[in-house]
């Protein structure tokens, strides 16, 4: 939240924008952000920090052109595609503002809402996030899938996560400093920030359709993101595996006892090949599923203990820095 010192010296907002093949959206986003920030009191200034996730359509060149005219524009370009969540976290850890706002490059989230975010931030809220009241022309099947995901994560999660809240949010410098301590190779920032606590509030808004280009989130990417959300906030799947193992062991013990008793009272005992095969196949399938659940957790542990670079910065644009350009360190 704003302190007395930064009230006196003015406040800096970091507008963080991850981008991947968004060349057509760079200029419209810049103009709308600049217009939105002009609606704030004169005591506010801003920086526009782009994180280029190794785009191949000239996105970084468009950013460079704008940065040449406006020193408030910064950019970091990855050496390869590291993914959306890492791009967002890299933006947060390199933001210089008293607060940071994460904004998608496709302009589906309105920059004009930043003014409302700031009002709640000035009232003492550390996190102000947008709640998607509507989703433009998104397919009904996708909306139904999202509702199922929220139901599932509510059932499994040990942390309370807000519904219909994406990554469009304002977070205070205190949250930014905490995020610098994160060393997770597969971060799930929506849940991570929600689980930190502090004062948080949601603001309903209507999401627009994409201005230009195509969404980079295909079904596989959305499933992977949902899986990250569940595994980051719950060990319930592991507990369910244990419970299922205990139940199946009990069923097996009961079945063995039943067949043993029946053996002494019946002389024409049927072979039972079909039932035995079904039980065996069911057990093998469930074992594979449960081992897969355990493997997902183990795989995440493996990635974290490898201590590989979180991201690698290929290029940096930072005309506002004094001295040598600041390089991202993660």
Give the topology:
Blueprint (H helix, E strand, L loop, with lengths): L3 H6 L1 E9 L3 H16 L5 E9 L6 H11 L3 E6 L5 H11 L4 E4 L11 H9 L4 E9 L4 H17 L8 E8 H7 L9 H7 L4 E8 L11 H14 L3 H30 L7 H33 L7 E6 L12
Parallel strand pairs: 1-2, 1-4, 2-3, 5-7
Antiparallel strand pairs: 3-8, 4-6, 5-6
Describe this structure in words.
- The protein is of the alpha/beta class and 330 residues long.
- The chain folds into 2 domains: 4-218 and 309-318, Spore Coat Polysaccharide Biosynthesis Protein SpsA, Chain A; 236-305.
- The chain is built from 11 helices and 8 strands.
- It has an 8-stranded mixed β-sheet with strand order 7-5-6-4-1-2-3-8, with helices on both faces.
- 28% of the residues are buried.
In short:
Strand 1, helix 2 and strand 2 form a beta-alpha-beta unit. The protein contains eleven helices and eight strands.
Query: Strand arrangement, largest sheet?
Result: 7-5-6-4-1-2-3-8
The SSE string, one letter per element, is HEHEHEHEHEHEHHEHHHE
CATH-level-4 superfamily name of the largest domain = Spore Coat Polysaccharide Biosynthesis Protein SpsA, Chain A
CATH arch. level architecture of the largest domain? Alpha-Beta Complex
Helicity range = 40-55%
How far is the N terminus from the C terminus? 25 Å
**Low-pLDDT windows of residues:** 4-8, 322-330
Q: Sheet bearing the most strands, described?
A: 8 strands, mixed
Oligomer: single chain
Give keywords.
single chain, 330 residues, alpha/beta, Spore Coat Polysaccharide Biosynthesis Protein SpsA, Chain A, 8-stranded mixed beta sheet, elongated, disordered C terminus
